[in-house]
Write a structure and sequence with these properties.
- The chain is α+β, with helices and mostly antiparallel strands and 213 residues long.
- It is built from 7 helices and 8 strands.
- This is Thiol:disulfide interchange protein TlpA.
Amino acid sequence: MDETPQPIGGIGSTGLQWCLSHLDSRSVADMASSLTSSPDTPPAVGARRWLLPVIVLVLAAAGWFGWRAFSPSQQVPAASFTLLDGQKLSTRDLKGKVYLVNFWATSCATCVKEMPNMIQTYNKFKDQGLEFVAVAMRYDPPMYVMNYSQTRQLPFKVAMDADGAAARAFGDVQLTPTTFLVDRDGRILKRYVGEPEWAAFETLLRDTLAKQA
């Protein structure tokens, strides 16, 4: 195996987006912690020399993508989703409801990791009126999405964003998972990039559903 460090410039924008979609804040934090706590042996020093700039680059890029996305309390955009059964659903159809829009991909490790908790959360709050739309990114093969939805028995609506229009409408979503919480007035209350902190997530959902019931 060639262990020669590669120049950061060789990552490219597409590769950087892939890296960001497969890393969350916990992953980056764990990586940084391991580097700073490594013994000062020659291999560890060499690893720190080229990995730390990569971490800085990833964090800077994540901040840039976040700057482009929606800030809380903005109105939800006019967007349309194509569900797996071919039916159309729009944000206009969801007006008056509390709902989550979760951008995900079957190739995204964090998306797959958080999905059981998303299912549990939806099942916990659906009787209180919570709606959920899981939007597969445009690069996700429809066959993979359908297979995942069926084998995991996803209980909520699953959509394909074949042309990327929904992701663009929601602030040009690039990172997965990205989840938006929308209230009954059509305001985006919270945007989560990566896996949420579940206790706080459920508290906000519970309060939003109760306050606007």
